[in-house]
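Late entry, written up from scratch paper. The run itself happened at the end of the previous shift, but nothing got recorded in the book at the time, so transcribing now.
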Amino acid sequence: MKIPEEFHRAKKALVAGMETERQPFKTMWRELADFILPTRYAWLMNDNERRKLMTKNPNIIDGTGTRAARILASGMLNGITSPSRPWFKLRLKRDPSNQNYTVRRWLDEVERLLLQTMADTNFYNSLATMYLDLAIFGTSAVLIYEDYKSVFRCYNASLGEYFLGNSSTGMVNTFARQFKYTAAQCVERFGEENVPEQVRLNAKGGDSKSLNSYTVTHLIEPNDGKLPQVPKIFAVRELYWLSAGTDTIGGSIASGEALSVRGYNEMPGIFPRWEVSGNDPYGSSPGMDALGDIMQLQHEQKRKAQSLDYMLRPPIKADIQLEHRPTALLPGGVTYIAGINNVGAEPIYTVNPPMQAITEDIREVQTRILEFFHNNLFTMISQLESVRTATEIDARREEKLVLLGPVLERTENEGLDQAISRIYSIMNRAGLLPEAPESLADEELEIQYVSILSAAQSAVGAAPLERWLAFIGQTAAMYPAAINAVNWDEVIRDYGRDIGVKSKHIMSAEEAAQRTQAQEELLQAREAANQGTALVQAGKTLSETPVGGGSNALQQLLSS
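Output as recorded:
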């Protein structure tokens, strides 16, 4: 597919610049991969290093760092986006509580369809990898594309193959990556008509040439309308091209040739980060914080094992007469010395390391690593030495959630918001969502997260309200007018939202006012009816009371 050569050169220069900007981060990622997940991110190494690593892992002796990262990733998956329970709600942005029955029913059905479709795809498997990337490397990239079989499908870009760029707001808006495809894969993915002739010939050969590999460059960026194939109506454009070079059969890969060009209404990917410094496109992570302790742990475990070897299998010195009699000695290093009076063997020196102190220090380092990865939040109850009250457990959880709160919000803003919006748009374009009520024509929807961690984080904000109401209750015993300082309707409504009560269970201010008015009118009608009944009964009593002269009390009252 032909594209303007000048445009193509500019995009290749953009990707090269993004690669240069990423270089300092790649060095840190390499160390993190070495000491936490060495085989998974082997593409951060060259081919020789990769082959050695596949046969032997020399870096990890103690796997505490790896286990801690996996616990954090699993805790975030189940605490933020649990596959087994609803973790988000849709509501009106302008007035979340003002939803009539028709709107609520439509929102509930859309939520159900979104969650069901997510469960039917690889969405949650992809999120598990995303959370692990965030815990270790601080940055993740997940591409979300339409799929004819499963509506949509997610693809986790591999760390080390992609580059990111920020917008002026600090959000990632440019994504590029370079990866390997064989000739056969190029033809299958992009079609014979879109690949260079050399690639097409290799793929058709049916022999080893079909396995010849090529470097494919992939770029997703905001659409400025400068590429004719992507109209300005699309917010985002995507390009694939083969990196310039010489093909293995001697042909040249020309500039100005694209494998694929496409436009999107929204960004077809999410790029969450754990923590960001300044305008950096890549984030920092608990893995980076814990790396020093993880490296120290490997060193201490190695020295501890060596100390045990010296204690159990010390180097020995032996009489020269035992040189050719290996069965006479236990395994270990042997130094033969002539002139020993007594034929035999003895240790050259005795090693007595402080094993208890070493073990205690190792345990302390392991504890620090677990704390860096917030494992004490997700395994808090199992780590308690005695049974505690529910109040104490809640207080401990709230204390730890304060540390995870900023990360939770960033994950929602940079990742989950975009993922839900992207999936909603895909399903809506495919006609898989019910038609929206007419009353929502000019309304904008927003996402409310109701996951375990989100609800717990919101509940932390309800604590001041609880303390204030407790104070009001105590003060009212001495000063009853204190209860008049509370706007009870708004307090009840806000408290329900803070602890995660569904919006459909909370009446809007208008609905509450209408119900209150109806109750007052009903009460007034009952009082009026009661008064009428009392008057009738009184009249009956007077009419039955004789006062003499053939008349009753009622007649006398009326004639007076």
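The longest strand covers residues 172-182.
(Scratch paper discarded after transcription.)
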